[in-house]
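Schema walk-through. Below, the input block comes first and the output block second. Nothing else is stored per chain. Lengths vary across the set, and this one has 270 residues.
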Amino acid sequence: EGGAVRQDATYLITGGLGALGLQLADWLSAQGATHLALLARRPPSPAVAARLDELRARGTAVAVLRGDAADRASLDGALGRIPPDFPPLRGVIHAAGVLDDGVLFDMSLEQLERPMAPKVQGAWNLHAATRDAPLDFFVLFSSVASVLGSPGQANYAAGNAFLDALAAWRRSQGLPALSVNWGPWAESGMAAEAGRAEQLQSRGMDLLPPPRALELLGTLLRNAPGNVTVMDAQWSAMLRRMGGRVPPLFSEIASQESDGEPKPAADAVD
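--- output ---
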């Protein structure tokens, strides 16, 4: 089945030792992955090392690669440390990311570039470094911020918009690519870590439960749509906040809301 996780493969996760990366590692292992390569800029903490030992106890070989995807030499060095007995690399999930919020007018160049580097340079380096690998999937963890915008996060939104464009370009070249504009995840991910649940709910979004988000990721890998937005949207609250400035993307949803048609709690918007 196209894009399905297979046993004779190695899967690379960037941001692999973060809360989200570890969720993805657990999920890939549960899907049958036998070899994982987790890229991170820092060594694992004792708590993270214990999580990795649990994965290994379940029969999944885990290699921790120290490196920075945004630095091509660092990335190449890290990929060169994938153990030689690991099977070929067949899947990449680029989940690395950082935030540095601020009003664009007052933003320094360093602040502008900090969230963009792992998205723009990191994704491009991964594309270049794995272009000749027999990949079944190349997944970019983008954000709903590049679809809806996000106050104080122009730098982050721009970086994620690059991921969406890169996915489209890769597919035009006959290469696998999926960019997912995720809404905020519960329990893991930057929104949860920054304690932004109430702020997001006021904008019409609830946090995505990780099991449901991962289930959707599995569906997307099998169907490989290229670019999709996944969020737990409370449409009436979101549209109220937009006032009369409804983007064309949501015009049909706005029309249905005004007609009083019920909506599912979780929506995927192509």
